[in-house]
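Q: Convert this sequence to structure tokens.
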Amino acid sequence: MNELPELHFPVRPRLKWKREGEKLFFWDKRRKKYIRITPEEWVRQNVIAWLESESYPESLIAVEREMNILGMSKRFDLVVFDRKNKAFLLVECKRPGVKINEDTLHQALVYNRKLNAPYLLLTNGMNHYICAFDKENHIKFLKQLPPFEQYP
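A:
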């Protein structure tokens, strides 16, 4: 699909595509329907392919689920759960061209108050920031994804 930008991920997703006029859709096996491919969705699908290539189990990756935060309905982009069904990695995706900044981090931290994941990934497809929380709940930036196998 030549009209989609090349993103900075080690792998590309393999998707079943269809076109309706000028709009491009892909079959999302998790949501069991065709989803319109937007710039942010393209980033999300690339993140999923990357996580799976790093041995994150497909069955433990949740996509765009709704949650209630302070009486407001919010949707996270991705959450990887551990084998005990606890949030392991919260992923916040932005479309390419949107800067990953303090506002992005704040948004992820608000979601993570409810999820309590030990790791965050913030990405716009071009830049990726991986964060971990230490015992005092301070943020530490990592150079690579935490290996899923290390977690129970």
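The chain has one domain: 17-143.
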